[in-house]
Amino acid sequence: MRRDYDPKENLIGRYETYDSRNSNQQNNDWPLEQFKEIDYRKEYQQIESFNPISQEHQKMNIQQQFLLFEKNLLLLNVCSYQQDEKSHRLEIRNLTTKALIKTIQFNDSSQQKLLAHHSMNFKDYIVISIASQIYLFDLDKIDNLQDCILKIDIESDISIQQSYILDEFRILLQFTSELLSEKKILFVLSLDDPFTHSVKQFHNLKIQLSEKDVQDYQNQYKDEPVFIKSPTQNFLYTTRSISYINSPRIREYFFIFSDKLLMINKQTFEITQKFDKSYILVGYCELQYFFISWDRKLYRLDDYFQLQFMKQLEFKNNTYPIDSRDVGITNNKLVLKVNADSIAIFDIFTLDYLNEIQEILASQNIINVVNNYVVYWSLNDSVIIISDIEGKYPCKEINREYSSKIQLLRLIDLNNLSQEEIEEKLSNFDIQQTNEISQTDKLIFIDEENMIYLNNYRKISVDKVMKDQEFQYVCLMSDKINDQIYIFAFQDQRQVMYYNIRTAEFIKIELLEDLPSFTELRSCWIDFNLNILIIYGSYYGVEDFLTAINLKTRQQIQEIQLNKYEQYPTVFIEQNYIQISTNKRIRVYLFKNETLQQVIQMNSNSLDCRSYFQQKSLNQPGYYIKEFNNIPSDQGIVANSIGILSNTNTYNHLIVLATYFKQAQKIIIDKGKIKLYYANNEINIAGYIDSDIDHDTLRKFTALSKMTHDQAVVELKNIQIYTKFVTGFGNCINMFQNNFPALEYIYKYLSLLDADQIPILIISNMYGQSNPLDIALKNKQQKIINLLLQILLKYQNHILFNEIIDKNLCELIKQNINLHEYFCESNLALQQITNDSFPSQHSDSQELLLPINLVHSQDILTKYNETFGCIVENDDSEDSSQVTIEYSMVNLPYTLSKNPKELMITLSKSDMHENFESPVIQNIINFKWEAYTKSYYQTKFYIFLIFFGSFIFESFNQAYYGLLQQNFKNDQRNVSIVIASKVISLCALLSILMDEIRQIRIQGKTYFNNAWNYFDSSYIVSYLTLSFFEQISINSDLLVLLYILAILLTFMKLYFYIRIYDQFSFLVSMMAGVFGDVKYFLAFFMIFILQFGLIFTILFRAKDVAEYRGVELLTYFLMIFRTASGDYVVDLFSEQNSSFLVALSWMIWLIAVVILNIVFMNFIIAVISESYSKVMEKLTAESYKVKANMIVEREQLFNEQDLINQRLFPQYIIIRRQLDINAGDAGEWKGFLKDLKNVIEVTSTKSKNDIIQNQVQLNKIPQILDQQKSKLETTQQEVKGDLTLLKNEISGIKTDVDSMKNDIMTIKNQVNGIENLLQESISKILEKLNK
């Protein structure tokens, strides 16, 4: 994303003056309102994907070209030749990559094709002239000539040479004709309806002009062109040769005639303004016209239609002619072609260079920034140049002998002074020395002799101001409200001070650590809102340093400092952030509650220079000198601002992308990649966002979004491209977030890449929008949810990305997503603390779960003493035993604090016991249980025990001495004891009743959704009813019934309360589970009881049995139940009236015994055993689920103040426990099925991983085979080469041997010859001697 920056602005926003010390409100959010992201799904939805045209055997001739900077497009009118055939086409290409986007082929290749481009109402229009036909197109909707929105057929024998769009109703054409002796005719065609309407228009135009008409016109209007309206046609014409300049102004057109610029009224076409020479219209921006002359002078058209000179743009050794096509304005930038290969870009208002081609360093050092001027040495150090920052005044040069008095320029108004006047003032300065300084004085600068220069040409010694305070170095200090009202003094490495001239106060600051060593103090800044003091200096001018001191802690902020080779910082301080820009990088420090929260660093190689910055004052830009090829140094004054961001070749807004993950403490933006670091001191990145995109990337993303499934699967094989991030589209995961088959292919393709090559994948497509996991959860797409979780846990398994799951944890549990891997195997939910500040060996082995609230989870590393210091004490004596302690922290800040009640409600309704077996959930439940639930229920339990004991006493007293005596005669109970027990019971019950009423008022109808609540209310009602009837009734049977009911309900409440103890909890859960499991079996059993009971009732003719007196109707049903339970009653069988009935009775009894006693009873035992096994298997989970249910009931009683209590509902929970090397399932029997399940799960996971790895290896086999084949071929070629070389060497050796043989034979022959010669000589000598 591109944004136009004012070099006078800082990175985040404009500075507004306010008194921070009187401001009680601090904004802790990024001011992102001015950094709007572009949704490229909408921005580039009109761009289609086209395959580039092969240019083999083609000869291309580009006849016209248009640069559309706003859309990064290049329009080309191309004429090409192939096999002696000529063809014309319009090509639309990417301006950056030159990649072809679209082609429009012209049918008739023999005619000349002319193009014209015009922008109107944020749309681009194209005029194409073919022979005597004119076509007008909307650039976004052009695919062929039939897509025109306007077509004009000219029924005359003319040749169109130029065409322009004047406005929605007028088109300007220039043509020649043989009938008119090839004279150039310019005419304006007027339309009845604007061409911007969606309805296509077709016009036939017949031009009726004779050569005599043209000659008469030229004779009548000799000096200037006049447009004549045709009496028969709807057009104006002139025969003068003039050139049209495209202008967007409402009232005027601009033309060039005879080297003069003319301004013509749009309505009357009369000349309204003449200029002395011709100018090129640069462009129209912010309601202003900008012109450039042929001699490169830049002008602005004022409100009186006069050209105001702005700047002389001169380029050394450059004779490149300026053409209207080589200069323009786009996005407040002046774009000027410097030479055939270079383009320079300036800010149109300040004329500062924003982007320079082939730049070189030219100056040595800036001397100072004086008022609105930059003072610096010339290239050869011969003179001092004084250059106006805003370019309003020409540069001034003064002699180098005044270099020692440069600071005095601050006292002079330089605007209207000449060089001689400035030198004279510097020579004759009369500065009066004063001994006092007032609150209204203005501090200007401090010289090398520690003299402070004041307004009104005065100066005072620093010693007199500091009143004999000792100091080593001194400088002026500013805050963001007042410029230089403080005198800062460095006293020693641990002590600094400053003097406020407005309040006449000395403020001393005792530091807790030494400052860096330095020999020069350059600048200081202070901010009372952030409580920060920034000191900048250098060490012997070789190494610069910058340090920031927290005024509250009196310690240095380690993150705010300069790296090696960083120099010349420019400082911006705002309400909640500090920006420091240097020659290497820009850093933004974001604060929250006066604590550094995040650091964003933007690297830039374009600012690597030796010329140092000079900042005029705090929150003002710093300036440095640059010079480019053929550009003089006075044109090279540049402010180090965020304009450097435009050097990153990306369309995304990097600042906004850097804020996607709030927990990233350090973010480095470098070459389109946003690297996220979890902590400032971390070396390894947590992940990165690949935002290095261009227009070609946008085109590919747009095309992919429109492909069918099969096409997309093929295209996604180039998965590396689609892991890049484009705002609006996101990445490949965002684009196919609702397409499970496509996501499976993406996951498969990702597995072929190295993990280090994969950027962050699960991310929202725009700032503040939902990410793919959010959307899948909203749509309840469980397959996609599981796949996204796999991607997240595999490629983003870092605590930084836990916020993606944290905010959706409750919804994941609701949808029964398996979170075992997330809770137990990932690094996301549970953060292990292994820092040295947390001792791993300790004498105190107690287990602790403590709440803690942090700005950033990494801050826990400095919180040991604050968290555990007052709770655990370490015994370092030799006799004490040391145990190994482990520390961890539950990292679910959103779930624990944002909606604190939802997690427990969700868990209480969940049937997935695996969640309760995870350490994370167990730790959360344990904390909530110990923090506020257990004590609450224990208090209620103790009150209930008071009632329970009193009620049991009443029951016994009533049974033995009261109305329920066996032979009741009178009430023998002590009245005072009865009253006392009743009062105790009613008081305890009243307390319980008030709590229940409060619970009903808070929960409403949902109170009755819990079965236990029925027992709470019913036992209270039963006791009150019993107490009432005790006073008015003498019916002992009714009292017995009421007592039995009250006892049953009271004991049911007792079972509820004993669940708070782990030893009883599982027993209560087991009983409830057993009854839940056998309920259908018992119902089936009762059906058989009913069946055989009816049979026996008929068989024995409903005969009365004495032992069942009072329940005669149920006699035989009870008899069958007793038979089923093994209590056989067979006395009645022999009393039957016939032997047949006796035999039948025994037969049916045997069947009943087999079915009910042998079969059903054993079935019940088996079912209960299985139910018991299940309960034991889920013993831990059931225990925690019981606690979760009770926690839900407790949290429902909290008010709003309780819910924001950070001790009860913290962001994090820190756990301290002894490390148990035997920890696991030992000592706890969890059932055979669970063990088997764990084995299956482990085996399944391992098999799945093996399959994935094997698949990855199989996919790599063809590549490996190709590599091996290539290596084999290479080896074979090398071997062949070696063999050939060896053969050649052997042949050479053989040749050498043969040569040597020949040489030996030659030598041998020579030796033989010599030997023969010697023999002959000796023979001759002997003969002579003999003679």
Automatic annotation (TrEMBL):
Q: Name one GO molecular function term.
A: monoatomic ion channel activity
Q: Which GO terms describe its biological process?
A: calcium ion import across plasma membrane
Which keywords does the record carry?
Membrane, Repeat, Transmembrane, Transmembrane helix
The record describes its membrane topology as:
Multi-pass membrane protein
One GO cellular component term, please give it.
plasma membrane
- Note one Pfam family from the annotation: Ion_trans
Kindly list the residue ranges recorded as spanning the membrane. Answer: 941-963, 1039-1058, 1078-1101, 1113-1134, 1146-1168
Which branch of life, at top level? Eukaryota
Query: Do you know which InterPro entries this protein is assigned to?
Result: Ion_trans_dom, TRPV
The compartments listed are: Membrane
User: Which protein are we looking at?
Assistant: Ion transport domain-containing protein
Organism of this sequence: Stylonychia lemnae
